Amino acid sequence: MTLAELLAAMQLPFVQRGIITILVLAVAAAFVGLFISFRSMEFVTDGLVHAVFPGLVIGYVVGGSAGIMPGALIAALITALVLTLLEQRQKLASDAAVAVLLTSAFSLGIVIVSQQESYVSQLESLLFGHLLTVTDTQLWQLIVVAGVATLIVILTWRRQLYRAHDLRGFRVAGFSVFKTDLLLSIAISMLVVAGVQALGNLLVIALLIVPMAVARQLVSKLFLLVPVAALVTAIAGFGGLTASVWASFSHGVNLSAGAAVVLLLLLIYGLVLLGRIPSALRRSRPSATTGEVAP
């Protein structure tokens, strides 16, 4: 496949929809992912992702592809509320609550989808997504849901920062911890729903966590974290889509675009960590002037 043919293939409508999907998710995930990272909510986010699965399945069973987004959205909002209530009232440790919801919800989804005739193909679609088969309707749904999630974070930006870095001061200042936490959980849940059709239930977690992890390794200034994280996702997204199209047209290989995007994200993260090894080794060497040894 020549470069000209590859560029022509990238102009196809379904590929263009995939590119737009990735760009929308890149921006939204950068904003939401910032506070996932600041609040160390990676495990909670993983729980939200898995808890959405029954909603995906029920929505698909009831309304087909058109029912996936509404079903997932309802499940996500319910889960966000339940997790926030459990954490605030401390009836269960946060990690325990997440683990219970994660396993029970995911098992329920598997039981429901296994009753369908085309069990394997439906399960694969729900778990791993289909980035290159996103329809116009699904794209608009994704834009709206991701946009609302981003807007929630932007409108509560100062409160979320305050809550993340000084919980005691946040309470003393009279702010509601429950409302602030619930709004962030809703934003995370909505972004999970937005990304799940493109990347699937299992892979969307990487979009929420890895880009910001890369950004925090590369820059330390707050105002640079969101743009860098969005750029990382955009690069991995375009690279993954290109690899998928090239593999399909040149070699007839059905390479999952969503999986390719996630693999590139992980590759970028790995390269960034490798690049930091020399500086880490230099810091760990004994100081020649003071005679101190780094711990």
Kindly report the average pLDDT value: 83
Number of domains: 1
CATH topology description: ABC transporter involved in vitamin B12 uptake, BtuC
Content of β-strand? under 5%
Distance between the termini: 54 Å
The number of helical runs is 13
Series of H and E elements = HHHHHHHHHHHHH
Which residue ranges are poorly predicted, with pLDDT under 50 across at least 5 consecutive positions?
288-295
- Summarize the biggest pleated sheet: none
What's the architecture, going by CATH?
A: Orthogonal Bundle
Overall shape: globular
Number of strands: 0
- Helical fraction equals over 70%
Top-tier CATH class: Mainly Alpha
What structural class results from the helix and strand content?
mainly alpha
Radius of gyration from CA coordinates? 21 Å
According to CATH, the homologous superfamily is: ABC transporter involved in vitamin B12 uptake, BtuC
Explain the overall architecture.
By secondary structure, this protein is mostly helical. It has a single domain (3-274), classed as ABC transporter involved in vitamin B12 uptake, BtuC (Orthogonal Bundle), CATH 1.10.3470. 82% of the residues lie in helices and 0% in strands. α3 (42-51) packs across α11 (177-218) and α4 (53-63) runs antiparallel to α5. The radius of gyration is 21 Å and the shape is globular. The termini are far apart. Residues 288-295 have low confidence and may be disordered.
